[in-house]
Amino acid sequence: MGEPHLAADERIDQLYGANIQIIQSQSVFAFSLDAVLLADFAQPDRTRRGLTVDLCAGNGAVGLFFSPKTKGQIQLVELQPRLAEMAGRSIELNNLEDRMSVLNLDLAQAPTVIKPDSVSVVTCNPPYFKDVPTSQKNPNEHYAIARHELTTTLEQVIKTTSTLLKMTGHAYFVFRPDRFLEMMALLEKHRLAPKKIQFVYPKAGRDANMFLVDAIKDGRPGGLKILPPVVVADDQGNYIGRVHDLLYGPTKPVS
């Protein structure tokens, strides 16, 4: 296909590790490292043909970056029309129209369109911050909605995830460590058993600033694994290891 239509404030970026292009705009939203890490952490079902749903999809980053792992359908759920439309154009840009689609609706309404108990994998990079009077919010509405619980809550995200997932389906989230215990309690409340957790550190010696979790619907209690940590950058701020390879492709050995 030809070059996609781009608005004046848009550009095309590439995630070299997944060989995926994505339409971005700093005016409304641009994906962050958390989306890249979540897509890498998440795994398809055993058949690699089950339905995947990405909630709070934004401009489609997580679903697009996850797409090379599965042959099944991927449905993106995004509330904001501009971001949903951008995600749709990125799907076309990568020739994934036969496997990916976008639902522009409130995630709480997703089970009215997607059959409950039918989804193999749910991924979600939810808003990190509670909506409280003292919280500092971005004046840009698109960023404010992405970062703060203005249109949904962590519990609503987890409740919808559980409703959509089939028994033993997997849910994958990326979230902030200061709300770790809250998330664990909500997962248990909504029949999701955490099985793998991985903490992400900006640099060696720093506190973790993210964690990734893999939870199974109606999974057996116990068996939780804490995976080796992900360290994002060296002391000079250069991306290292797996993170570097995801963003720029594997480092070629020196001959």
Describe, in plain words, how this protein is organized in 3D.
By secondary structure, the protein is of the alpha/beta class. 27% of the residues lie in helices and 26% in strands. The chain has eight helices and eleven strands. The strands form two sheets. Strands 3, 4, 5, 6, 7, 8, 9, 10 and 11 form a nine-stranded mixed beta sheet that branches. It has a two-stranded antiparallel sheet with strand order 1-2. The longest helix is centred in the middle third of the chain and has 13 residues, at 81-93. The termini are far apart.
Brief account:
By secondary structure, this protein is an alpha/beta fold. Helix content is 27%, strand content 26%. The protein is built from 8 helices and 11 strands.
Summed over residues and divided by their number, the pLDDT gives a mean of: 89
Give the radius of gyration.
18 Å
How much of the sequence is in beta strands?
25-35%
Q: Could you describe the largest sheet, including whether it forms a barrel?
A: 9 strands, mixed
Distance between the termini: 37 Å
